[in-house]
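Protein 1 of 2
SEQ + STRUCT:
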Amino acid sequence: MNTSDVVNASHNNTCSPEPQHISLGVILCLVYLLGLLLNGFSLWVFTCRVHKWNSGAVLQFNLALSDAIITPLTPLMAAYFVMDSNWKFGDFACRLKIAVLSIHFNGSVIFLMLISVHRYVSVVHFNRSLLIKRKIFIKKLCAGIWGFLIILGIFYGWLLPVTIEENNGHCLTIHQKKLIDSYFVINFVIFFFWCIFPLIILVFCYSRLASSVSRININSAQGQSVKNKSMRMIGICVFIFALCFLPLNVVRTIGVVVKKYHSSKCRLLLQLQTAYYACYILAGINCCLDPLIYFFGSHNFMKAFRRSLKVMGVKPYVENKMESETVSQSLNRNVVSN
C-alpha cells in the first residue's frame, strides 16, 4: 500500500491488509514441519518405547499432541499470509482453522502450566501424597481439558466467521470491522486466562523450585546432578513461555486496542499486523522447543529416546554408567521421575 492509499484509507476510516512477504509463509511452514517431525517422533517414543507411564509422562504426551495437531492447517495459513490476506478457502475452513488454533495454543499453554505445577509438587512436596502425582487423576484431568478445549474452539469458530470487506475475504484478522468488538473482548479474556494467569503460576512454581533446588547439597555427585537437571528444566519452561507466548499476546492486545480506538492509523495497524504474524511464527517455535522438556524432564523418555536412536542406527552420546546411576538414584529420591 503506497502513501496515497494510506491517506485515502485514513479518510475513509478503513484499512486494507497488505500481502506479507513470501518468506513469512515459507518460514511458518518450515517451523511447523520441524515441529511435526519432533513431536511426531516424541509421540512415537511415548506410545511405542516408553512402557511404563506415570503422571508426568501423561502430561508430556498431551503437550506433544496439542503441538502436533496444528500442522495440517499450516499451508492454509501460510497461503493466507501471501495472498493479499484474502481468505479463499471458504467459511468452514476458516472456522476450522480458528477452532484448531484455539485448541493448539490454549492446550500448549495449559499443559505446559500443568507440567510446571507437577514439577513443583514433585520436588518441593515430594513427601506428600497429592492428586496431581496420581496417573489415574491426571488421565481424567487431561480428558476433561481436551473436552473443554474442543468446546472452546468450536465456540470461537462459531463466533468469528469469514467476513467480506472490499471484495476480500477476511479470516481471524483485526481488519474485520464487524467483529472488532468481539475480538476486543475475546483478546482480553485470552490475555488474562491464557497468558497472565499461567505466567503467574509458572513464575511461582519455578521460583519455589529454584529455592528448593538451591538448598540441595551440591558437594555430592547426586546433589549436583539433581540441581543441574532441575535448573535446566526451569530455564527451558520459562524461556519457552517468554519467547513463544508472551510476545504474541502483547502484540495482539496492542493491535485490537489500536483498531478499536485509533482505526484511522492505517500504517501502524499494518505494522502491527506484520509484527503479529512474526510473533505467530515465534509461537510456532514452541512446537520445536517442547521436546526439550520431554528429553530433559523425563528420565524414562531419555532412555527410550536413546534406545530408539540405536534401533535406527544412530549412536547418541551416552553418559558413563556411574553418572547415569547417580542421576537415577537422585531422581527417585528428590524429583519423582516424570
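Protein 2 of 2
SEQ + STRUCT:
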Amino acid sequence: MTQTRTTRLERGRGALGPALELVHTGRAPTRAVLTAELGVTRATAGAVAAELEALGLITVDSRPTASAGSQGRPSHRLSVAGNGPVVLAAQIHADGYRAALVGLGGRIVATAPGCGTIPADPAHVLAEVVEAGATLLRETGRRCLGAGLAVPSAVAEPDGEALNPLHLAWPSGAPVRELFLSALADAGIPGVTDQIGFTGNDVNLMALAEHRHGAGRGARDLLCVASGHRGVGGALVLDGRLHSGSSGLALEVGHLTVHPEGAPCHCGSRGCLDVEADPLAFLVAAGREPGPEVSLLRQAADLLRDEYADPGVRAAADLLIDRLGLGIAGLVNILNPDRIILGGLHRALLEADPERLRAVVADRSLWGRSGGVPILPCSLDHNSLVGAAELAWQPVLDDPLAVVER
C-alpha cells in the first residue's frame, strides 16, 4: 500500500463501517454516490472502498463504463463480494426450523430446512439447527463471521431469554441466547465468542430485514405486522433503528383487543389479534379443519389463494381483514408511522383485497382520512432469517477491521 493511500485510508478509517453499510443496503451503488453519502473526498472514498475490497467484503468495478446518454467520467460500481464471508442464520417456528448462510446484501447463499414438531427442550432443537448450519459451512467452505437466531417469542435483553414462546412447548424464560452460544461452540463454528451469537424476536428481525433490503427500505418510521405459523407479532423501526423498548419487549401487538367477546387468548384476555387474525383463526372462520400434513400458515395461504371465490372463504378473509385493520388503525393512531408492511398471512390478506384493508385503516385511524399511510406487502423471502443474519452482520458493519481481521 502506498504512503499516499495509507494516509487517505487513515483519514477515512472511521468511514469503513458506514461505507460498508451503504453498500450492504444498496444505497451506494457507485463510488461517486459513496463519496457524496460519506461527505469525504473522492480520493478518501476510493481508499475506503479499496480497503473493503481487500478485506473481501465488497467488489469495486475496475473498468467502469458510462451508461448511454450520460456525461462526465463514469464512476466505479460497488457491490458486495459474491464469494465473500457469510453469517449463519437460524429460525425456529412452531412447525420446524431453518438454517441458512447469508452474505452481505441480505443474499441467502444456502439453506437447510428441518420440519416436524419442535421438542419441549430448546437445547435439543438449537443443537439441530446449528448443526444444519455447520453442515452448510462445511459443504460451501465459506468463512463464518457470526450467527443470529430468530425465535417466535419476545426476547428479553440483555440476557436473551425467550419470555413467552406461546406456540412452542418451551418453558417461559428459556435462555435461548446462552443455549445458542453453547450449540455454536459444540458444533465447532469458527470464532465463537460472546459477540458472535445474537438472538431476537422473529417479527422484529423481519422488520429489520425489510427495512434494509425490502419493502421498508427508505422508510423512517416503519411499522411491521405479521402472522407467522401461529399468532401475530409486530415491530417498529424508528428513525432507521429497530425499536425494542427498554428490555427488548416492545410492540407485542398480538395482544391488542380487536373483538372483546372473541376467543380466549393465551395471555388471559379475549379477542386479541393473536387469536383473531392468525392462520388458525382464518381456517376456523372458513369452516376448514386444520390438518397435520403442512403448517397452518401454508394451509391458510393455500386456501386463500386457491379458493378465494368460495363465499365461505371470502367471508372469512373479510372478517380477518376487518379485525386486522382495526388493530393496525389503533397502532397508526399511537405510532404515526410513515409506512406499514405486512408479512405472513397478513401479506396474503392484503394482496387478496387491498382496498378493503386500506379502507378499514383509513376509517378507524385519525390520520387515515387526510392522506393515509402506505400499506405494503413484505417483499423478501425468508425475511426473519435475513433479519437474524442482520444481527450477526451488525458488528461487522460497526467495525469491519476488528471482526474480519480477528
